[in-house]
Every structure is written in structure tokens, then in C-alpha cells.
Amino acid sequence: MELDRSRRMEVKPEVVFLGKLVQKLSEGRLRLPRFQRPFVWQPKDILALLDSVRRAFPIGTILVWETEEEVTSTDMVGPVELPEMPSGFVSYVLDGQQRLSSLAGSLLLKDEQAPFSSGINWRIYHDLTTGEFVSEPKGALPPRLFPVRHLLSTSGFVSACRDIVSELGDHAARPLLDKADRLANAFRDYTIPFITVRDADLNTAVTVFARLNRSGRKMTEDQMVSALTYEGGKVPLSARLDELQGELRSSGFGGLDRIFVLRSVLAAMNRDIYAKDFANLMARPELRDSLHEGFEIAAEAIRRAVQFLKDLGVVSDRLLPYGLQVVMLADFFRFCPQPDPGMKEKIARWFWVTSFTCFFGGINSSRVREVQSEVCQVAKGERDDFRIVTTADAAEPFPPQFDGRSARVRAFLLYLVSLGPERTDGRGSLDIADLLAKQGPLALGYVAGRPTGEVAGRPTGEVAGRPTGEVAGKPANRLFVEEDLRGRALARFEKVADDETLDRVLQSHGFPPGSCTLVRRKEQDGLLAARSECLIEGERAFMEQKRVQSPQQRVGDYTLADSETSDDLEEIDF
User: Fold this and answer.
1) Rounded to an integer, what distance in angstroms lies between the CA atom of residue 259 and that of residue 541?
2) Is the pLDDT of residue 468 over 70?
């Protein structure tokens, strides 16, 4: 897909009415190319978009590539089926897919159509009394709910207004009809900035997009690479990434950010994993041709890396200190797919050292490349062992506060997992991987209570009748809990009648032997203080077992390691 220098590219900015834009979609002249990611917006996003149109708020620019070249596109936009591909010029959406799908789904839906698509009920209504947009409620529709799908259709609008009059009568219906009229006018008069790139290849169109959006909303890296390497008839990169992510989800690693997968693909192609100028990078034919092979090599290496992590006890990406560790491990397994026990021991130590020392926190890209080079050399047998990482400083001290975004806290959680936590009622072991998959942040509960005003795991006050702010926000107050547990784990511990069973359960969560006495006495602060000491010493022994140099001080100051640690988290505390 070389750029034809004899063609003069045209970039045409204009402002179009919403109705015209929707009409182009319904006629099939505005389409969604298959190299775009699937529809991912949630109902709340759609409702917010419609409210922005009602209020005449801007919703951003739509960028399309207009060409006579036939590009494989979707046959649906939201729940709306598109007609066959017309002849002549067709516009393909480069930016605005989620917005256009939302508008088409809510405005073009027919009364007789099934409303559900992508898990969303597209029958959306505007409450003429409250001014809010709502999804279709169950049961009979009150006359104040006006169907959004009738706003741009003259016949549909008249029909909906007649229904209101029929139910309320002329006088009572008048205020609602006035509001419906103003709403319809707001949608009919709404205009959207629209940029068309014409007489250019896709390569150039995406480059234009990237430069137009340097300071604004950007196409994700994988979407850009997918677009730039698009070949009709082949499965686009974004779709293959979706498939791999689904596969990783079944292994507990579905939340791994796609940028780390893409970096592994670049590594498999012997390219810089921090490459950013994809428009220029992927314009080179030799890279375009090797992309799919690079993806297959990287995908297999990532699978091996994930299995290795699970064998170490990293059963979920939520426990992974750094996404970059997956990139490095994939590079290792790319060159050494079947390591012998000695090699496994070396790479395992490498993982534990990078985790407990927070090695990748704030590290610059040139240092990362040095580490990557050494990992590959060891994997290929060109070096006998790791030097850069394993000769690093001692482990970071025990975290003084709990913050699930911190690499050091996640290393601590891996120690908790190694203890084999049991259910708080003593009825078997916890399946940590299953808990994290189902509950996410809620898989980690509180021993005795959450401090009032807690922000990012840091206590800002005390809880009356519960542990003080001195201990309530600390790691010692957090533990893995079963799915049906709501509230404090201590209350569940107190219900275990047998002291021997209770002591066994407590020890599986890092409490010292004999802690059942403190539970019976309801000495919460004493219990957490004892657990804190036990966790610190137990974790140091765990580090020694993993051949990680123990921290020089027992407890550190609060820091948040490496922004990459938290870029895939939905909850601020875990």
C-alpha cells in the first residue's frame, strides 16, 4: 500500500447536520471498516452522548477516509443493518466509530426491529418531564417518554405525538408536545465537524488522523497499526488482538493492557518496543509483510509467559506488578520456549527481584532496552545469568499503606497468595484466580473495617469502634475473602467455634499462631499489630526463599511505583 506521489490528497473539513450524517449511514455510503475495534460503549455512554446533542454540546470531530477502493466493512452499525456496498466513492470511519454507532443505533432503529445488540437495549426514550434520556423501562410506557428513534423521522414524530394526545387529551398533552418539538429541533439542527480525507491511500489518511489528534483523543496504537497494515480478506490485527485477549481472559490475564501485547509483537519483529510513530513505521513494506508472522510468534511467547507466571502464583493480571514484565518474559520464552530447571530458576529469580525492588518503576526506555537485551542473551545462551536486575538494590521495604496500584503492594499480595488463604469460615481454600475474575477489587476485603475518608488506600481518619487510622489503612487490614462475604472478615472469624480451626485459618492469612485468642477478646488493634509484624517477617523469609535481597529497613514511606502499574485498573484501591 505505497503512497502514490502523483495523486493530490484532498482534506475537506466541513460541518454537517446530524440528520445528513445518519442518512449517509442508512444508505451505506458511510461505513465502519473491519480493522476498527468492536463497539465497546456502555449504555451510560450512549445516554450521555444523546444528552450532549440535546444541549448542543460538541461531541468531537468525525474523520473519514473517502475512496473508491473496496475495503471490508461491517454490515451492521449498532443494531442497524446496512445495505450492500454501493458503487463509487464510499467513506470509511477512522475516528468516531463509537459515537456514530450510538447515534445510528438510537435514531435509526425501527419499531419492528429487535432492540438488543452488543448487550444494549437500543430503544431509548427521552423523559419529557425530567429532561433525561433513559433505556426502555419494563411494563407500560408512560406518555412522558418520547422514543428517540422518532426524532428525525417526520412520520414517526407525528405518530408519537398522536399517541401522547390519544392518552392524555389535547390540553394535558400540550406541554409535553412543546417539549418534544424543542427536542426534535435540537436534534435536527445539531451539526458535527466532519473531515474527509480523499484521493489518498489508507496509510496517508491515518497519518493525517494521527497529526490532527496529537493533543487530543487518539486512535489506540493497535488500531493504528491495524489500519496501516490492513489488507482486504485478512483478519485485521485488532481482531486478532481481541481473540488473544479473550484467550488470556480465560487464564486470568484478560485485563493485560493491549499496549504490552503490541510491544511484544514489535519485539518479535526485532523492532523497538517503545516505537511510537506507527504511521511511518508501518509504511515500510518489509514491516507490513512481517506483522502477522510477528503477531503469531509473540502470541505464543505470551501464552508461555502467562503460564510461567501462573506457575509462580501470579494467577491474575491484577496481581502482576508490571505489565512490562510480560513483555520481557515473552522475549525470554520466544528464544527459550522449553527452559530446563536451571533456566527456570534463573528467570523466576529475575521476576521476583524486579517485583520486590520495584525495578521498572520510573525506569527510562534506554534502561529497559538494556534489560530486554540481557533477557534475550540469557535465553539464547549467550550469557550465563542475569546481571542488570539481580545485582540491583535490595527489595523495597514493607509497604506502609495499602494501594493496589503499587508494584510493591502487588508483590506483597503474591506473598499472601503463597500462604494458601482459606475461607474465613474454615470451609476450604479460596480460589484466588476465580475470586479476582469474578469480584475484581472486592476480592480483597478488610479484616476489621475501612477507615473513613480512605483515598487510594491511605487512611485519613478513624472508624468509631473499629481499628484506628494508624492501622486501618495498612496492608495488615487487607485479606482475600470469599465471594459471599460482605463487610468485615473479623465478624466471620468470630463465628468459627473451634479454636484449632480458627487458628489454622488465621495463619493461612498471615496471622501469627495463637491469634484466635485476640479474636475472641475482640482486640482489633492488637490483632492487626500482631499480623503486621508476622507479615513483615514472613515476607522477608519469602524473599530469602526467592533469593531476593531483603530490604535494609523494615517499613518504608508511602510511594506509588511506576504509572504502568495502574493503567489497567478500574478501582483506585485495587
Assistant:
1) 35
2) no
